[in-house]
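To: structure desk
From: M.T.
Subject: fold request, one chain
Message: Could you run this one when you get a chance? Sequence is below, nothing fancy, just the single chain.
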Amino acid sequence: MRMKGAAVFIWVWVVLLASCTSPENAATGIVQQEETPVETMQLEQWFQTSLAEQAQRPGLALVAENASLQLYYAESTGNVELADIRTGNRWRGAPELDESVKGSMRSQREAPVYVRYSSPTGAITETYPAREDGKVTVSLIPQGVQVDYDLQSVGIAFSMQYRLRHDAMEVTVPQSSIRDDGGNKLVGIEPLPFFDAAAPVEEGGLFYPDGSGAVMLFKEEGSPFIERYREPVYGPDHAVASKTHEKLAYNQEENVSMPRREKVALPVFGLYRDNRAYLGIITAGQYDAYIHASPKGFRNAEYYRASTEFIYRYEDVMFLGKRTSIATPIAQGERIAGDRTVRYVLLQGEDADYSGMAHAYRQYVMEEQGVRPVSQPSELPFQLTLLGGVQRNEMIGKSFVSMTTFPQARQLIEQLRASGIPRLEVMIDGWSKDGRYGAQPQHFPASRQLGGGSALQQLAAYCKEQGIPLYLAANYVKPYSQRADISPSRDGIRGIHKEVVVITRPQRDTLQQSNQEFTYLNPDVALKRMNKELAGYKQLEVAGLHLDGMGDTLYSDHNRKRPSTRENTALHWREALAAAGGISGGGATVDYGFGYALDLADHIRDVPLSSSGFIYEDYAVPFYQMVIRGLIPYSAPPSNLSDDPELNKLKLLEYGASPSYLLTYEQSSKLKRTLADDVYSSHFEQWLEPAVEEYEELAALLGKVAGEAIVRHDRLSEHVARTVYAGGAEVIVNYGSQNMSVGEVTIPARSYVMTERGGNP
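Reply: Done. Structure tokens follow.
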């Protein structure tokens, strides 16, 4: 009886408070959920504390508290606020607005959630609860509060749960709470779109995970932006053509691909200002989510803000009828299932910047994702990739272009060792039947033009005897579709429109489609193909596999017989990585290194070393490297294919990345008119001396911090950056054309200085 009485008193108190709120907001009430076992004393204490808080913070109700934080619910807006008991810092769900901001502009900025839905015609609309005059019910849950939204005017309902953790708050949208069984269908939910939003006059910035990471500084001066950063976690889905193309047409030859941009490798975002910050981590539903980073001026809002949007249906376009130029919008039919959760980790003091965010996420992947340090040698390995061969389409038939046979590969390895390279790690690409882009996903037998299976086995035995890890590149994700045993309609993925997805290699100059077609394999097909070949790899006794595509490509499949969500595809890729780890006790390497692969990869190749450079960005940062260095070894894209070798070397030092080289025994001019013509400078004789020279210079520097984490990174000026390692060593790089001074240290133009643990260069 006492519990019911407490609930009634709370309800009455809330109703009285609600009478003072804006009439455009729906009537709400805070009640105790029957299924939640909360003691009566807790309710009474909450009620009394809330009354006391009203005197200090009008309109806020204290709904949860732990040793560090207090969670408040704002009845007038439906938003939340966090307070640190120890420091007094506060993180508001929406900015404090002055009285001049009224009407829809005010309710839009104070909205606790944005909702996107599709109408029966396929049109996408964005809204928020106050705009729809929806029904809102509030109830207490353990360590938090639940808000139920019923947007009756559009036929969509869902709940948001706010829960305190030690130094964080989690926001969850339970799958069981969602209802959209009318004509309108839920597309996306964006929780707390203005969480801790910052005004341009404040000092600080937004962090978003574009490539290695990017920062958007708060600026009072300058024009407002009409665009924002909005990119999918783990890259675009190739089953959704509109997300991978800048222009779509009925005639697919007129399609134009997106310009090259970096991907989102980690499901994080954040905002920092003087003495406080937060890091958002998507802990559930990250496979179907977008990262938003909005500069001032976007949608006429003078605030910098970051958020995530949970995707429940992807939208695309299709062309109906014959040769029509009208693109008809369509949305995915079945809603993507699963709970969605974003965690806001609160940071203060010295941790209130992107370096502190990186440290917080590093702790997360170690403690909750199970990432453990991979054993790493004290000497920096020379990362060598050798291209075996590739097919060329001729006027009649095809020919095989041999670039590095297996005996020649041994010769090149021996030459590098004779040049003083103490440790190598070798990967061979294009080793299988018909070479790179050849018979994949079939890899055996090994190419007879390169020496065949016996020569490859001899090379593997030699590498094992010399203590040189040898990896074989394997492609089970994106084979060249002109293969007799691959049927795109049977084995490939289908888009939202249920049609077979055909991927073409875009023209370099126009980005229009070419006649070079590829197929993304259904993840079930890909995994079965790999499992059939595991015995062959084990017999070779190689160190492991490099699994092309499984670390940098994620997609769904809308085939009715064999559907797959992006999450299901990621689970298949993880299963493949684990299976590769069972080969000769070795492991697997991947490109780029999406977050779901971090606990299974032995090495990450082609790690991102920059961002996309969008107009609102101020500079790129090595956030990704600060997360994984000392845990997972990583290497940069091949130095011999870099546009600017001098700048590339500075990037390697700033980002703590090992150099890599993609080399061939034959002249790279032989690759003209092949699918490997992007390997334009690879001749071993030409690159032996400069590669050894660069390696020795970098090995002498990075060897001093081998296996050490990057604990801090600072952008000291437009062209100068500093990287600090766990042992105290610092690397300062100067990308500018003039000498620069940092304290008593002068950094020459386009050069670097490394200070030892004692602070001396």
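Reply (cont.): Residues 1-55 have pLDDT under 50 and may be disordered. Let me know if you need anything else for the meeting.
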